[in-house]
Design brief:
Blueprint (H helix, E strand, L loop, with lengths): L24 H23 L6 H12 L8 H7 L5 H22 L2 H6 L1 H29 L8 H13 L3 H10 L6 H28 L12 H31 L9 H21 L3 H10 L6 H28 L9 H28 L4 H11 L4 H12 L14 H8 L3 H4 L4 H11 L7
Helix pairs in contact: 1-2, 1-13, 2-13, 4-8, 4-12, 4-13, 6-7, 6-9, 6-14, 7-9, 7-16, 8-9, 9-10, 9-15, 10-11, 10-12, 11-12, 14-15, 14-17, 15-19, 16-17
Protein name: Cation/H+ exchanger
GO molecular function, one term: antiporter activity
Subcellular location: Membrane
Length: 452
């Protein structure tokens, strides 16, 4: 059935009046959410003996529900996950991601980042430099072997590939560390701080690539490369404003909600939740993804006292249990493994994955050793910093929007499906797939290093 997106209504009048609820936005969203939760929770139960994070089950569940498995039945796909419903599902899921990053910032002590700042900065620099340089080589290979790749400007294509290979999936890393109870350990704090530095650099480089590309194939006028400088300066100004102005205000709010008062005022809770949304909007306005605004706002809230604990208690289960699985599942719904055909395609896929993983792990491992971090702990950092996930998908979506590649089948030797599979199908390769082994290593080296 073909729909005009402007004619989609939120709710139906009911089956007794001849309406099919699946043709309306809200009833369909309910079915999609229930199906995603059922599949992801079932997979999480099956993977629990292997001690895999829930995010793995959620991504695999999305792949199973999408065109790679069940979605090969077009009648099912068009009925349960039609194209017109994708923006609605992703919007609701993005709200979950926004509040999850707020919770991460809320639980992460800013003083711990200061303690590991110099070490984390050097690790992040190595973790992004080596994969980025390797990405230049991969870009050259792809331009020579993949039809259509040479149609894109060399500078933005190289930066795009470098960013896609070198970035660390900050939200996925935070989710894994939180589930494994490693967020407040020395390794966890170092990894989070390094991932934060890593992503800031990656977004600035991506902004530079966007500026160089202009509006791509749509014939728009090219923007000045100074746009990336303005993005950086605006981002720094936003962080300074949050720490200098908003943080004292939130400290005052936390004191007002201290045990000396009878209860936490609901008005303060509502204003804080609104602050998450406003912070996300501001960073999106700047040109940085909204999740970083929510994360920085979480950092401004004092960790001492009752207020932070009350916020976590009220929103954590709803966000982590209901909304966040939708975001991870939506990435799997965009993936079609069948698009990879032929030995050459699989060879290029293996090349890109190997370069991305080896560069990130090796660069982080060597610099960690230079910072006098024990070998096992350095290896753990390398594996954690190699986390791949939805941030890469955001980068790939930006590339698609800017017409840096065309959406044609891979067997015609075009690049988009290679990049898409690296960002989504191969997500389990970058996301710690050997979490069971890594957890045993972490348990061995850090049983006594919890700081909280």
């Amino acid at each position: 059935m073909v729909f005009n997106i402007t004619s989609i209504k939120a709710s139906s009048n009911g089956a007794w009046q001849g309406d099919n609820p699946l043709n309306y936005a809200f009833p369909l969203l309910i079915i999609q959410t229930a199906l995603v939760l059922l599949v992801s929770r079932s997979l999480a139960f099956l993977l629990k003996p292997l001690r895999q994070p829930k995010v793995i089950a959620e991504i695999v569940g999305g792949i199973l529900l999408g065109p790679s498995a069940l979605g090969r039945n077009h009648e099912y796909l068009d009925r349960i996950f039609p194209k017109w419903s994708a923006p609605i599902l992703e919007t609701v899921a993005s709200i979950g991601l926004l509040f999850f990053l707020f919770l991460v910032g809320l639980e992460l002590d800013l003083n711990s980042i200061k303690r590991s700042g110099k070490r984390a900065f050097s690790i992040a620099a190595a973790g992004i430099s080596l994969p980025f340089i390797s990405g230049i080589g991969v870009a050259v290979v792809l331009r020579k072997t993949v039809d259509g790749a040479e149609d894109v400007g060399f500078a933005q294509f190289v930066v795009f590939m470098g960013v896609a290979l070198s970035i660390t999936a900050f939200p996925v890393l935070a989710r894994i560390l939180a589930e494994l109870k490693l967020l407040t350990t020395r390794v966890g704090e170092t990894a989070m701080a390094a991932a934060a530095f890593n992503d800031v650099v990656a977004w600035v480089l991506l902004a530079l690539a966007v500026a160089l590309a202009g509006d791509g194939a749509e014939g728009g006028e090219k923007k000045s490369p100074l746009v990336s400088v303005w993005v950086l300066l605006s981002g720094v100004a936003f962080v300074v404003f949050m720490l200098v102005v908003v943080r004292p205000a939130m400290t005052w709010v936390a004191r007002r909600c201290s045990p000396e008062h009878e209860s936490v005022d609901e008005a303060y809770i509502c204003l804080t939740l609104a602050g998450v949304m406003v912070s996300g909007f501001m960073t999106d306005l700047i040109g940085i993804h909204s999740i970083f605004g929510a994360f920085v706002f979480g950092l401004t809230i004092p960790k001492e006292g009752e207020f932070a604990g009350r916020l976590i208690e009220r929103i954590e289960d709803f966000v982590s249990g209901l909304l966040l699985p939708l975001y991870f599942a939506s990435s799997g719904l965009k993936t079609d493994v069948a698009k990879i055909r032929g030995a050459a395609a699989w060879g290029l896929l293996a090349l890109v994955i190997t370069i991305a993983c080896v560069g990130k792990i090796l660069g982080t491992f060597v610099v960690a050793l230079m910072n006098k971090i024990p070998v096992r702990e350095a290896l753990t950092l390398g594996l954690l910093m190699n986390t791949k996930g939805l941030v890469e998908l955001i980068v790939l979506n930006i590339g698609k929007e800017k017409k840096w590649f065309l959406d044609r089948p891979f067997y015609k030797r075009n690049i988009p499906h290679l990049c898409g599979i690296v960002g989504s199908t191969a997500i389990e390769v970058g996301t710690p797939q050997n979490t069971f082994k890594r957890r045993k290593v972490m348990d061995h080296i850090m049983p006594h290093k919890h700081l909280a």
